[in-house]
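Target chain:
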Amino acid sequence: MHARFAELGWAPTRIGEISLRRRLDPTTGAEVYEVKLGDEYLMSSLFTVAEEELARLALAVAPDAPLDVVVGGLGLGYTARAALADDRVRSLTVVEALAPVIDWHRRELLPEARALTADSRTTLMEGDFFALLREGAGFDPGDPGRRFDAILVDIDHSPVHTLDPTHADLYTEAGLRRLGSHLRPGGVFGLWSDDAPEDSFLALLRQCFATAAAHVVTFANPLTRGTSANTVYVATTTS
């Protein structure tokens, strides 16, 4: 049996000290995995419904054909694994800026990591998602102009609460149009947000894409014994 608390990984990064912790939650009795950036909680295995729904909601409107998918942000791997559960996905490229996070998965410090790393469809790519987009390098080192069927992003807290100020340019007209240029006709952009739907951002999505919608995803919160919600934005290019 595991100890009630353990720090499984720690490393300095360009945006601060990042750590992976495992603890026994006193409220639920469940084993919980958490990632912290300094003293700030980035993600927890207690709350994964919306991360998984990001993949499901986006791929639900993707073309009915073999799909090439990019996930921006590896985290605990829930979005990526939910994408792989869709049999249409033939390739999955997960872009993660922080090398320690990739290392944690490759070392199987997370209980379901092997389902991701051992899948032949998966490529774990170390890189700054925003810089790759901004600088035109794209998400395939061998083919910078390659387009994809879906790009799913779960990195920032929301379009207005970013982890790094350099990320903000994605959530502008120019940034969204750059992202759209990496999608095939009928391709899908999905974005996770911790905030409620923002009318101004939804309007911007509708300006840059053929369709756009904001989905409120609710889930039980064992800490508050109530219900919490996240937002998943889904936008599509012209078919």
Notes: Residues 1 and 61 are 43 Å apart (CA to CA). The longest strand covers residues 183-193. Residues 47-236 form a domain with the Rossmann fold fold (CATH 3.40.50.150). The chain has seven helices and eleven strands.
